[in-house]
Every structure is written in structure tokens, then in C-alpha cells.
């Protein structure tokens, strides 16, 4: 009576579509539950899906080959595209600060890991595909494994007689080493380097206090007699002020608050609301007067401040100067929030779909502008599948472009990992391509990333589990873990020493670079709790895209150059 039920849930070497989906969903659901189990401050997180897949594969559960390949590749594409959209804006802006140094350190660790992998291949005679699997697992880099497998498939398609080992086995064996190796290095480096977290916090605060790009507003009373009777435009020109906006003005002795134009003249003891980053605002106030404690300028009855979302084509990819809200509606945009970053509302700033504008002015005028800009939060919550799948199509096309290099057996390609990642980075940086825009709400991004990595981990785990135990015995898995230690620890230790003693990096930032260089979210989650700080997240996001692209290329090159 229940034979159909047993058929669905029993191991099967030749599963149909339904049985394949059941195995896939079991691996993901059980893996997600197992990933939440904590031992101290450490949990496997979403990577537990792969280990559940290994367990299922070992005990005879299988997926239809065509379904497995599709799920694996589609999951990887979703994961890396979500990463690119999420970190794109902060990735490009970081290069104006310490981003270049952070990326040089991280990419240097990647290159050193690649050299060590090649030496292990030469000295131990391990097949290069297994060596690349060791490397990808030892640094917990999933896109690198995906790129290696795609490259091996390309070679096999062109040379059907060639037979290669599956790098997933080595990846699965050394993956736990990568996770716990980084965490162990973080703990030991804090102790060995004798890190005082209070001093590190104060040092970082002093270092970045003048460089933070956080937009603030401050009240200022005019006391400089040389400026009286001059327009705001004249004052900005004479004092060489560029990155400050005057959002409100209240004349001395009056309770009327209004949004001034550049032609508005300044009088003695006028109170201004000054908007900009801390350094520029402090500099401006120092030149024109002093900080004011006036309360009326904050509570003007006819003047309000409201956030408005850009959700119409009429405002998308237009600059603030082109919208000209001040002359048309007597309104002033003081700041723009994009992907969590606050930007000063300069006239040349181009608006992207999903941007959030802080507008100061009359309530009725703001209501009129909302009709032009959109301000439809409902539209932002609705999934825009044209933008999502259109971006994925562009990413796949870019990843499929062959790059012909003499002496290589097949062309080099960005593949399903790097192609969508680079596409997402540039779409998020420039706001979109034609009808494809970059805005995806945070909930959708996290869902896309987690779904993608779950699909990938489940597929590779189930596939590798079929021969995992036999291969562990055949290749002496403990010896592979020993080799993996060289790839995990040597670049990490050198990175810590160089970053700390040569470049004098703050420990919080260094920990983020360590986690980012090994693309390890589990280590990042541990470090933020262990150090009780969100600072590592910033340097992690700064190096993650460049590291991912570098690891993809290193994995491909090792396969192309040395696979026989």
C-alpha cells in the first residue's frame, strides 16, 4: 500500500525526477537544521548542506545526472550574482580608502596558495585536479571548485578519451580544515600578537574619524562679519567650499524656516542647517561662525524632511541637476541612500532605481515630486524578474566568452562563477543596463544567495558522497588534510605578519581580510561575535569580489596548464 512512499525515500541508483527532487530537498532542509547547531561560537552554517549531501550520497541516494548538473550550476550562478549585487557599491568606493592595500594583501595570499598547490602537485605526484580540489576546500572557496569542474568538462568535451578525477572529493575532505583553520588562526593571532581590543578600537576610530563618508547635519550660526550680505554662492566660491549643502535657513529674530537657494544672502546671526561629511561640515562652520543650539530651525512648520524612493523611469539615470527640484518645486535634496551607503546630494549625482532621497521643503511640493520620482515601496518589494534574469543572462554570456591563450588546450573562460559576479559588480556600480536595473531588496538578495549556495552544496555533496569513503581510503584522506594545512596556514600566517608589522593594519580590519581572502562566511560570523564588532564585515566585503575572481582564475589556470 505504501510502496510508492518507500520508492520516494529509498536509495536508488537510477532515480527519476521526483526521487531526485526529494533527495535534493532532504539534503537542503536537514543541512540547514544541522548548520544551526552551535559548538561554542562556531557553527557550520549553510556549508552543513554539503556534508548532509555527502552522507546521503554515501548511503546510496542519487540524483538524475542532468538534474544534478543543472542544480549545481544554477545554484552557483545565483550565489555569485547575489554577492556581486550586494557588495558592488561598497567594493568600488573602497578603493578610494584602504581598499587597494586590502586587496593586494588578499590577492597575494591567493597567489601564494596557488604556488603551494602547484608545489604539492609536483612533490607528491597528486593529480592536479585533486590538488585544485585540496586548494578550494582548504580555503573554503566554492566558486573556484565550480570553475575547476567547468574547465575539466570543457577539456573532456574536446578530448573525450581523457579521464579526470573529481576535485569535489578533495574539496569535501579539506573543507572543514579551511573553516576551522581560519578560526584557529584568528584566535591564536590575537593571543600571539597580544592584541588589546580597546586600543585597537580607539586607534581605528582616530584613524578613520576624518575619513568617514557618513553624511551628517549640523546647525551653524553666522558670526563672520566678512560674509554678511553675500550670497551662499559667493561664500562657497570665496571659501572654496564644494562638498557642503545648506538645507535650511532661519534669519536672526525670526521663526520662519525655509530652504535657501544659492542666491540667498546671509545676514548676521542667521542659523543654517549644514549637510555633508563630518570633516567638511566642521571646516565650513569654523570658517563662517559657530555651532548653534537653535531649535526652531529643526521644527519649521512649513518645512519638512522626507525620504522618497526612486521608482519611476522618469527619474532613473537622471542627475539631480537635470531634475532641478529646487527651481521647479523649491525643494532641496540633501542626501541619497544607495545600498546602505549615504551619498551627498551633489548636482552631478546620477540617480538609480531604488535610491532613497532625503528631500527638504514644503509638504505639498514634496507630494508633487513624489508623482515624478515614484516613491512606491510596493514596487520595490515586488520582484523584477526582467532585471534579475536579464542580469543573469548577461553574466552567463560574459562567462562563456572564450579567451584564447597560446599553448592552452582549451580557451580560458570566466565561467558560471566569475562571469555573473563581474556582471553584478558593474550593474550595481552603474545602476543597470538599459531596462535591467541593479536594485534588489535585501531580503531577496539573502534568499537568492542562500538558495543558490544550498543548491550547489547539495548537488556537489550528493555527487561526491557516492565515492567519498572509497576515495578517502584510496588516497589516504588524512594525508590530504595534512597537505591542505600548508595551503590553509602558510598564506594566512604570512598575511597576518605582513599586514600587522609592515602595513600596521588594525586587527579588526585584518581579521576581515583573513576571512575575505578565504571567502569564509563562517569565519566572518565567528569573528564578529568573538571580537564583538561589525568592523570585520567592511574589509571582508572589500576583498571578497577580487578574491573570488582571483581564485577562479587560479583554479582554471592550474587545470589548463597541468591537467594531463
Number of helices: 23
Sketch the major β-sheet: 5 strands, antiparallel
Query: What structural class do the secondary elements suggest?
Result: alpha+beta
Parts with pLDDT < 50 across at least 5 consecutive residues = none
Q: Tell me the β content.
A: 5-15%
| Shape annotation | elongated
Give, in spatial order, the strands making up the sheet with the most strands.
Answer: 3-2-4-1-5
Quick synopsis:
The protein is α+β, with helices and mostly antiparallel strands.
Structural commentary:
The protein is an alpha+beta fold and about 575 residues long. It contains 23 helices and 11 strands. The strands form 3 sheets. The protein has a 5-stranded antiparallel β-sheet with strand order 3-2-4-1-5, covered by helices on one side. The chain has a 4-stranded antiparallel β-sheet with strand order 6-9-7-8, with helices on one face. The mean pLDDT is about 80.
What features would you highlight for this structure?
single chain, 564 residues, alpha+beta, five-stranded antiparallel β-sheet, four-stranded antiparallel β-sheet, 23 helices
Describe the secondary structure blueprint for this structure.
Elements: H1 3-9, H2 17-35, H3 48-58, H4 65-94, H5 99-124, H6 128-138, H7 142-158, H8 167-192, H9 197-208, E1 215-222, H10 232-239, E2 245-250, E3 257-258, E4 271-277, H11 278-288, E5 289-291, E6 304-309, H12 320-323, H13 325-329, E7 332-338, E8 341-344, E9 356-361, H14 363-373, H15 377-381, H16 385-400, H17 415-430, E10 432-433, E11 436-437, H18 442-465, H19 468-474, H20 477-502, H21 507-517, H22 521-530, H23 535-562
Antiparallel strand pairs: 1-4, 1-5, 2-3, 2-4, 6-9, 7-8, 7-9, 10-11
Helix pairs in contact: 2-3, 2-18, 3-18, 4-17, 4-18, 4-23, 5-6, 5-20, 5-21, 5-23, 6-7, 6-8, 6-20, 6-23, 7-17, 7-23, 8-20, 8-22, 16-17, 17-23, 21-22, 21-23
Amino acid at each position: 500500500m505504501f510502496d510508492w512512499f518507500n520508492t520516494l525515500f529509498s536509495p536508488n541508483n537510477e532515480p527519476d525526477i521526483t526521487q531526485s527532487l526529494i533527495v535534493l530537498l532532504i539534503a537542503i532542509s536537514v543541512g540547514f537544521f544541522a548548520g544551526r547547531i552551535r559548538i561554542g561560537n562556531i557553527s557550520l552554517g549553510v556549508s552543513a548542506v554539503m556534508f548532509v549531501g555527502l552522507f546521503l550520497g554515501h548511503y546510496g541516494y542519487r540524483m538524475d545526472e542532468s538534474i544534478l548538473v543543472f542544480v549545481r550550476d544554477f545554484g552557483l550562478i545565483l550565489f555569485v550574482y547575489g554577492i556581486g549585487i550586494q557588495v558592488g557599491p561598497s567594493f568600488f568606493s573602497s578603493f578610494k580608502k584602504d581598499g587597494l592595500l586590502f586587496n593586494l594583501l588578499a590577492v597575494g595570499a591567493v597567489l601564494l596558495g596557488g604556488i603551494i598547490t602547484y608545489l604539492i602537485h609536483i612533490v607528491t605526484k597528486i593529480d592536479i585536479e585533486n590538488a585544485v580540489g585540496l586548494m578550494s576546500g582548504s580555503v573554503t572557496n566554492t566558486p573556484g571548485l565550480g570553475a575547476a569542474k567547468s574547465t575539466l568538462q570543457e577539456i573532456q568535451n574536446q578530448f573525450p578519451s581523457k579521464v579526470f578525477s573529481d576535485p569535489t572529493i578533495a574539496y569535501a575532505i579539506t573543507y572543514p580544515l579551511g573553516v576551522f583553520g581560519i578560526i584557529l588562526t584568528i584566535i591564536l593571532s590575537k593571543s600571539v600578537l597580544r592584541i588589546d581590543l580597546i586600543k585597537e578600537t580607539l586607534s581605528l576610530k582616530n584613524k578613520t574619524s576624518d575619513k568617514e563618508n557618513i553624511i551628517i547635519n549640523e546647525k551653524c550660526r553666522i558670526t563672520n562679519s566678512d560674509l554678511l550680505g553675500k550670497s551662499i554662492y559667493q561664500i562657497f566660491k570665496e571659501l572654496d567650499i564644494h562638498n557642503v549643502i545648506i538645507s535650511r535657513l532661519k534669519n536672526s529674530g525670526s521663526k520662519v524656516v525655509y530652504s535657501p537657494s544659492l542666491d540667498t544672502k546671509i545676514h548676521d546671526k542667521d542659523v543654517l542647517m549644514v549637510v555633508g561629511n563630518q570633516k567638511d561640515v566642521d571646516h565650513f562652520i569654523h570658517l563662517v561662525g559657530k555651532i548653534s543650539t537653535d531649535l526652531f530651525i529643526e521644527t519649521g512648520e512649513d518645512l519638512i524632511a522626507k525620504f522618497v524612493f526612486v521608482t519611476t523611469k522618469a527619474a532613473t539615470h537622471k542627475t539631480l541637476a537635470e531634475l532641478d527640484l529646487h527651481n521647479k518645486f523649491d525643494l532641496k535634496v540633501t542626501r541619497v541612500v544607495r545600498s546602505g551607503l549615504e551619498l551627498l546630494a551633489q548636482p552631478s549625482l546620477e540617480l538609480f532605481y531604488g535610491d532613497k532621497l532625503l528631500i527638504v521643503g514644503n509638504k505639498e511640493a514634496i507630494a508633487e515630486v513624489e508623482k515624478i520620482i515614484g516613491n512606491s515601496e510596493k514596487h520595490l518589494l515586488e520582484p523584477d524578474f526582467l532585471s534579475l534574469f536579464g542580469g543573469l543572462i548577461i553574466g552567463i554570456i560574459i562567462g562563456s566568452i572564450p579567451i584564447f591563450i597560446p599553448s592552452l588546450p582549451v580557451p580560458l573562460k570566466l565561467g558560471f562563477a566569475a562571469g555573473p559576479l563581474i556582471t553584478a559588480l558593474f550593474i550595481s556600480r552603474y545602476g543597470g543596463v538599459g531596462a535591467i536595473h541593479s536594485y534588489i531588496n535585501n531580503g531577496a538578495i539573502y534568499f537568492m544567495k542562500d538558495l543558490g549556495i544550498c543548491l550547489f552544496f547539495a548537488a556537489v555533496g550528493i555527487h561526491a558522497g557516492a565515492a567519498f569513503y572509497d576515495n578517502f581510503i584510496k588516497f589516504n584522506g588524512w594525508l590530504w588534510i595534512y597537505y591542505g594545512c600548508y595551503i590553509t596556514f602558510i598564506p594566512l600566517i604570512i598575511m597576518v605578519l605582513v599586514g600587522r608589522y609592515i602595513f600596521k593594519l588594525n586587527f579588526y580590519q585584518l581579521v576581515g581580510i583573513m576571512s575575505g581572502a578565504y571567502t569564509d562566511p563562517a569565519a566572518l560570523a565567528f569573528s564578529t561575535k568573538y571580537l564583538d564588532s561589525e568592523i570585520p564585515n567592511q574589509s571582508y566585503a572589500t576583498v571578497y569580489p577580487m578574491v573570488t575572481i582571483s581564485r577562479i582564475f587560479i583554479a582554471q589556470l592550474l587545470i589548463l596548464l597541468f591537467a594531463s
